[in-house]
Design goal:
Blueprint (H helix, E strand, L loop, with lengths): L13 H14 L4 H6 L5 H9 L7 H15 L2 H13 L2
Protein name: Carboxymuconolactone decarboxylase family protein
InterPro entries: AhpD-like (IPR029032), AhpD_core (IPR004675), CMD-like (IPR003779)
Organism: Algoriphagus oliviformis
Length: about 90
């Protein structure tokens, strides 16, 4: 199994540090996937822009889809994250 090193706030650029701060404020934590994207200068911001784009789906509906996808993929980390986010969105 390949292990990934997840960067801490101090390991990423100032721009990504600001995104970390916003995530910490909004979610109470920085998901490891997001932190890993921050190894690249633009990937984290680009990913969040995609995730937060305008949609006809409500946040609750998007999280239900994300949770089912996480279950199908067998990712316990993602299941835990999307369960928490789903609860935050009703």
């Amino acid at each position: 199994m390949t292990k990934f090193t997840v960067p801490a706030r101090g390991d990423v650029s100032e721009n990504n540090q600001a995104i970390f701060d916003n995530l910490q404020k909004g979610l109470g934590f920085v998901p490891n996937l997001y932190a890993y994207y921050a190894k690249n200068e633009t990937a984290l911001g680009d990913y969040l822009a995609l995730q937060n784009r305008k949609s006809t789906l409500k946040a609750k509906e998007r999280e239900a889809i994300n949770l089912v996808t996480s279950q199908i993929n067998g990712c316990a980390y993602c299941q835990a994250a999307h369960t928490a986010l789903g609860k935050m969105n009703g």
